[in-house]
Design brief:
By secondary structure, the protein is α/β, with parallel strands linked by helices. The chain has a domain of 288 residues: Alkaline Phosphatase, subunit A, CATH 3.40.720.10. It is 31% helix and 14% strand. It has 16 helices and 16 strands. Strands 7-6-5-4-8-1-9-10-2-11 form a 10-stranded mixed β-sheet, sandwiched between helices. The chain is globular and about 60 Å long. The structure holds 2-deoxy-6-O-sulfo-2-(sulfoamino)-alpha-D-glucopyranose (SGN) and calcium ion (CA).
């Protein structure tokens, strides 16, 4: 593979700019290694010191935090994969980049930061889960999964596959790592690089690597304090969702237990495309789990707890391989003298519920999915072991990378560079609030539309929109025959997944200092009038300034 000379036809202006840059400036421009997993909860990273992370250590990810900075207030703007990736690549909010929902698409005419880096002389690579429409723009090398990808023997496409997806044998996390290292090996070493490594894991349905099967089987994970949340004091959205471990986590697809005893146990009911060796090892492991469950099936609360334990064991085993992969990449940088001049980022496309409020999945503006893990190291520029408590958002990555590369941020790019925070001291004129907006209803998990603001201490959320099938009227793509949204909507109606729900328009307010677990909605309660007015004003300011057209 030789990608160093591909896509190198630079516009004249960029060439002129590159030519005027002195050698010293060129040398100073850091490499960027951006590693992003899919659905990795900060609770499952030991550097964050949560009970789950402490029982399932991630030493390699922790090393980035230890030799760099841990961000404790890193948020997404729209807690869902493709929307989050669109924020990342454009530095724009969802309504500005076009990707409000999962299935229908980013406005591909928008500038991707990768195009600007490439023009400025960076060698750019994108490996793994792309999950956006079209071909990755601005990448000298890309090697991407189809859609969500699969854990075993996934298909990839790249510049060298003629637009076709080609199956590769192995486990997604390690294949992605191998391709990342291939990029590093074969890059043009006279140029700085920006490499994006996007893992499929630990996305649902959490199939472990052969080498790690059963890794956490002897560990019992503590239930989160909010596991039995009954949503008292909250609006209907918390009750009409379909992401409850007890009620909605699937025995077969998610937990690999076949409760239909009349048929033979078959892996293909929850994982496909395995070779013989993979089949044998996974079969023995999951069949034993299924048999043991069926021998004495728990019910009620005990069933929910059984599901939680097995969900966490699978999820964390899958993360164990991710941590391994991070270790491999750090080792490569170290052995090639690249750690000195590389910004290394580890993050996730959003957070995830590990049983908080009884849930799995994400989407809601409540902390565990709004917040995403973020650690960064950049030797000599970020103090070791530092912690940043200022509010950052995924629209800030593009401006940060441009800033480090010495490229001017396009005026229309909304995020702001994180570089001033690298010093590790409080930046006074930093943002004091963030705006969030989730649009993807009615679809998987039936999370209602909402937008809101979060400040250091408070969170105001506005839930809105028509319920059940009536919501199709408000969903541009679901109304459009031929789109994926239209087709999946009709399938969900036919299968009975979409159930009727009320039209809604209500607010919730949380005082995160008094109620960090977000169990007590205090909207409308005595004593909160003033802060409610202030937050409402802030929300209105965002909506006006950003020209939000639905809420
Ligand atoms: C799939 C999952 C959902 C998940 C979405 C979005 N179902 O539809 O649980 O919310 O992806 O995830 S699955 O049974 O197919 O795994 S995202 O990370 O891409 O946003
Ligand atoms: Ca995701």
């Amino acid at each position: 593979m030789d990608f160093s000379t591909r896509n190198m036809i630079l516009p004249i202006a960029a060439l002129a700019c590159a030519a005027t840059r002195t050698d010293a400036q060129q040398a100073q421009r850091p490499n960027i290694l951006y590693i992003m997993s899919d659905d990795h909860a900060y609770q499952a990273i030991s550097a964050y010191n949560d009970p789950v992370g402490r029982l399932a250590p991630t030493p390699n990810i922790d090393r980035i935090a230890r030799q760099g900075m841990r961000f404790d207030q890193a948020f997404v703007e729209n807690s869902l994969s493709a929307p989050s990736r669109a924020c990342l690549i454009t530095g724009l909010y969802s309504h500005q980049n076009g990707q409000r929902q999962l299935a229908e698409g980013i406005d591909t005419t928008k500038t991707y930061f990768s195009e600007l880096l490439q023009r400025a002389g960076y060698q750019t690579g994108m490996v793994g889960k792309w999950h956006l429409d079209g071909t990755p723009k601005g990448f000298d090398y890309y090697h991407i999964l189809n859609d969500q990808g699969t854990y075993y023997n996934p298909v990839f496409r790249g510049q060298d596959t003629n637009g076709k997806y080609i199956r590769e044998e192995g486990y997604a996390t390690y294949l992605i790592t191998d391709h990342a290292i291939e990029f590093l090996e074969q890059r043009d070493k006279d140029k700085p690089f920006c490499l994006m490594v996007h893992h499929k894991a630990p996305h649902r349905n959490w199939i472990p690597a052969l080498r790690h099967i059963g890794y956490y089987d002897k560990v019992n994970f503590p239930l989160p304090a909010t596991f039995w949340d009954n949503y008292e004091s909250r609006g209907s959205a918390t009750r009409t969702q379909k992401m409850h471990i007890g009620d909605h986590m699937e025995m077969l697809n998610d937990l690999k237990v076949d409760t239909v005893k009349s048929r033979p146990y078959h892996l293909s009911r929850f994982v496909g495309g395995l070779n013989q060796n993979q089949t044998e090892l996974l079969y023995d492991y999951f069949k034993a789990r299924s048999d043991s469950f069926n021998a004495a099936p728990p019910t009620g609360h005990a069933l929910a707890e059984w599901k939680y334990q097995h969900y966490l064991r699978d999820y964390l085993t899958v993360i164990h391989s991710i941590d391994d992969s991070v270790g491999q990449l750090l080792k490569y940088l170290e052995e090639h003298g690249l750690l000195e001049n590389t910004l290394v980022v580890y993050t996730s496309d959003q957070g995830f519920y590990l049983g908080e409020h009884g849930w799995f999945d994400k989407r809601f503006m409540y902390e565990e999915s709004l917040r995403t893990p973020l650690v960064m190291m950049y030797k000599g520029h970020i103090p070791e072991g530092s912690v940043c408590r200022q509010m950052v958002q995924n629209i800030d990555f593009a401006p940060t990378f441009l800033n480090l590369a010495g490229v001017a941020q396009p005026e229309e790019m909304t995020g702001r560079p994180l570089t001033p925070l690298f010093a590790g001291t409080e930046v006074k004129d930093w943002r004091k609030s963030i705006y969030y907006h989730y649009y993807d209803y009615p679809t998987w998990h039936l999370t209602r539309k909402h937008d809101g603001v979060r400040t250091e201490r408070y969170k105001l959320i506005h839930f809105y929109g028509k319920g059940g099938t009536r919501a199709q009227q408000e969903n541009k793509y679901q109304r459009m025959p031929g789109t994926r949204e239209y087709n999946s909507f009709n399938w969900m109606v036919k299968s009975g997944y979409i159930v009727d729900a009320p039209d809604i328009d209500y607010m919730e307010l949380y005082d995160l200092e008094k109620d960090p677990l977000e169990l007590h909605n205090v909207y409308g309660q005595k004593g909160y009038e003033k802060i409610t007015r202030q937050l409402q004003k802030e929300l209105t300011r965002y909506r006006e300034q950003l020209q939000i057209d639905e809420f």
